[in-house]
Design a protein that fits this description.
Helices cover 64% and strands 1% of the residues. The chain has 484 residues and is an all-alpha fold. The protein has a two-stranded antiparallel ribbon with strand order 1-2. The chain crosses the membrane at residues 12-32, 38-57, 69-90, 136-163, 184-203, 241-263, 275-293, 329-349, 397-418, 455-482.
């Protein structure tokens, strides 16, 4: 284990993250907020901490191993979230506890979107902007950003990249060089953000709201500058349409976006098995949701049921977590159905959460194969994706992920219930955080402010597990990882 190299990288990444304090610092100056000092001191604290880590080991440049990469990623997301809480702690508005500040920071950077804050409309603009910016940085991963812009992290960059990128197949690169791959992803990410902000602005949002919501939309985060989330703009249906489009686009594999753009052809989307499954799942759930809302007369007129039903399906299905209505109060099975869709989540190599569509698809194919084997026990039936056989190693890894996911989910559910939460609240809180969704059911339908500090810390861990796709974090707890 190259601990000195890891220390050097953490120092560099912290120094990079300190720059994230400058935009909200400017917003604070622009709007004459009382938070100027909070962001200035946060910038200084994070920058100095990074320098202190980096300076003694600045000449350590050994090649990173895979284990080093996983440790850097897990440590950095934890440290980043802790340092990201500093502005909330130092700011006089909102006045929150240290636990709440850390919870909000974890939720932002992991793009979960769960919040403990109320009265968001009345918060200083700099705090509103900072929350949105946290999600934007967390969406693609600041480590991938660092690999893209700092050549010095090209040493061992693939190890960081493998630990950071979501999905079951982590060795695939869309360009020959890892630095170019990271840059390509960020160009797509930035382009979607700009187009989304423009769409919101033309749809009727203020420029401030348009930029802020584009950050959380493309990051599939769900934070809003208003307590009512997207419901604040309920009289401007075009905004909901823009949100649906960009939530859907952001939930697609970014490598697929790159391939389609490079070859100037939409055919690559239709040829992709995961994309087709992603579309089919969202369409089926949207149809069920819309017609049930219409039949139950939840909204006046089919057009309102259509817009709200499709919006909420795409929002929850991609694990964005925006709401235009209190979906957790919808009748019958709808709230649970939508929550279950978040378990599938978005596509691999997207900014979304959940188990990922590709894993769900391969698990489904594996289940069908086992049923076929009962009828034909001696048949050799390969699992194929896009007409190509899938490696047994990948299938084994997916089953391992699913087993770990279920086990971790069950343990955290029981611990949350021990803190006094009812079954519905505990179940949905774990689901909403480990899937990086945000809003849950029951007591956490609107926000997480009423939970105990113990429950909030457990859910912080759940958010981190979801963001790092479980194994990246759990591998650090195994004796084999630390063995020479």
């Amino acid at each position: 284990m190259h601990l000195l190299v890891i220390q050097r990288i953490l120092g560099i990444l912290l120094m990079i993250f300190s720059l994230a304090m400058l935009p909200p610092l400017f917003v604070s100056f622009l709007y004459l907020n009382i938070t100027f000092d909070a962001f200035f001191y946060s910038f200084a604290i994070i920058l100095i901490s990074g320098i202190i880590l980096w300076l003694p080991v600045k000449k350590q440049k050994q090649e990173l191993r895979i284990r080093d990469g996983f440790l850097v990623v897990a440590l950095f997301w934890t440290i980043l979230s802790l340092f990201g809480a500093i502005p909330f702690i130092l700011s006089p508005d909102p006045a929150v506890s240290i636990t709440d500040a850390i919870f909000e920071s974890f939720s932002g950077l992991t793009t979960t979107g769960s919040t403990v804050l109320t009265g968001i409309d009345d918060l200083p603009e700099s705090i509103q902007f900072y929350r949105q910016q946290l999600q934007w940085l967390g969406g693609m991963g600041i480590i991938v950003l660092a690999v893209a812009i700092i050549p010095m992290l090209g040493i061992g960059g693939m190890q960081l990249y493998r630990a950071e990128t979501p999905g079951p197949v982590k060795d695939t690169k869309i360009t020959p060089r890892i630095t170019e791959t990271a840059k390509a992803l960020w160009y797509i990410y930035l382009s979607l953000t700009v187009l989304c902000a423009l769409g919101y602005w033309l749809g009727g949002m203020s420029l401030f709201d348009a930029i802020g919501h584009s950050f959380s939309t493309v990051a599939i985060g769900g934070f809003s500058t208003h307590d009512a989330s997207m419901g604040y703009f309920i009289d401007k249906p075009m905004i909901e349409v823009v949100a649906i489009i960009f939530m859907f686009l952001s939930g697609i594999n970014f490598a697929l976006h790159f391939t389609a753009w490079r070859h100037r052809s939409l055919a690559y989307y239709l040829l992709d098995s995961e994309f087709r499954a992603y579309v089919i799942i969202l369409i089926l759930v949207a149809l069920i949701t819309v017609f049930y809302l219409h039949n139950e007369n939840v909204f006046p007129g089919f057009d309102r049921a259509l817009l709200h039903g499709v919006f909420q399906t795409v929002s929850i299905g991609t694990t964005t977590g925006f709401t235009t209505h209190q979906y957790h109060l919808w009748p019958g099975f709808l709230p649970v159905l939508l929550l279950f869709v978040s378990f599938i989540g978005a596509c691999a190599w997207s900014t979304g959460g959940g188990m990922k569509v590709i894993r769900f698809l391969l698990l489904l194919k594996q289940g069908i194969r086992e049923i076929t084997r009962i009828v034909h026990p001696h048949a050799v039936i390969p699992i194929k994706l896009g007409g190509k056989p899938v490696s047994p190693r990948i299938i084994d890894a997916i089953w391992g992920f699913f087993s770990a996911y279920v086990a971790v989910f069950a343990i955290m559910l029981l611990i949350l219930m021990m803190t006094g939460l009812d079954q519905i609240t505990a179940f949905s809180a774990v689901a909403a955080t480990i899937n990086n969704l945000g809003p849950g059911l029951g007591e956490v339908g609107d926000n997480y402010a009423s939970l105990t500090n113990t429950a909030k810390w457990i859910l912080c861990f759940s958010m981190l597990l979801g963001r790092l796709e479980i194994f990246t974090l759990l591998v650090l707890l195994t004796p084999a990882f630390w063995r020479r």
